Amino acid sequence: MPFIEAKCPNCAGTLSADSTKNLWICSYCNTPFIFEKSVNNYAVMDYDNITADTVNSDVTESDFVISDGKLKVYRGISRDVIIPDSVEEICTTAFSCSTHLKSVVIPDSVKKMDSAFFLCTSLQYVDIKNGVTNISNAFKDCTSLESVIIPDSVKYIGNAFSGCTSLKSIKIPENVNFISENDFSGCNNLTDIDYPYLKEFEDYFPVLLERKKADRKRKGLCVFCGGKFSIFGTCKICGKKKDY
Question: What's the CA gap between 88 and 158, in Å, rounded?
């Protein structure tokens, strides 16, 4: 059989595919794809030199499986994706674990995207238009994501950026009135934070918490709560011992 080198449109894994077949299945992620449309284009595309023109010519309505406003599958070949305006919800099955995805533009028609881009480890750029209200787990473990501006419509984050180890800056709207301790866990490079009422939740940002602990230690206070120590070396507020 005439096998040629190609790349899977889902995981971008290099594989050998039979050019005489209309349909082939990726040996890495078991994703089925149409040979002529996906594999041939993938084999010749230079991802490091994608331009806006390339994106516009590659992404078409036929690349998306949409049902009742729900985007269920993206089967296109481009690493840079603009979600169609007809989409109201991005399902987990559409992009999660798509390690080839590099950038995405989300229109204001999208209202829900729970876990939509989980483990998209090559995702670097996100443009979220004003519309979505809940981004729970949406970008969890997107380890290449560096900067995000959350639109004013968002009210709940819900671990959306947990594990985003490359995240450096973020803008959070004041409509988000609560942050949990896990929302930014692992974001050890996040230093540029634009968020009103920040002081109330600063302990949930790893870098800010470490700075606070270092400052408390310098002042001879308990690093955990800022309390003073008794003559026995125990914090008068939280009861922890001064063991550092």
Answer: 19
Alpha helices in 31-71 (DSSP H): 40-44, 52-58
Question: Average pLDDT, stretch 49-78?
Answer: 69
Residue 6 structure tokens: 């190609």
Which of 183, 190, 198 lies closest to 148, judged by CA?
A: 190
pTM: 0.67
Concatenated DSSP letters of 129-166: -TT--B-TTTTTT-TT--EEE--TT--B-SSTTTT-TT
- Number of structural domains, the chain? 3
**Is there a single domain that holds both residue 243 and residue 122?**
no
Are 223 and 168 in the same domain?
Answer: no
Q: What is the pLDDT of residues 159-202, one digit of tens each?
A: 999 999 999 999 999 999 889 888 999 999 998 999 988 888 98
CB-CB neighbours of 21 under 10 Å: 13
Bridge partners of 141, per DSSP, are none
Claim to verify: residue 171 and residue 60 sit in the same structural domain: yes
**54/65 Cα distance (integer angstroms):** 21
- Roughly how many angstroms between the first and final C-alpha of the chain, as a whole number? 68
For residue 225, the enclosing domain spans 212-244
Backbone phi, psi, residue 107, to 5° = -75, 170
Identity of the amino acid at 99: T
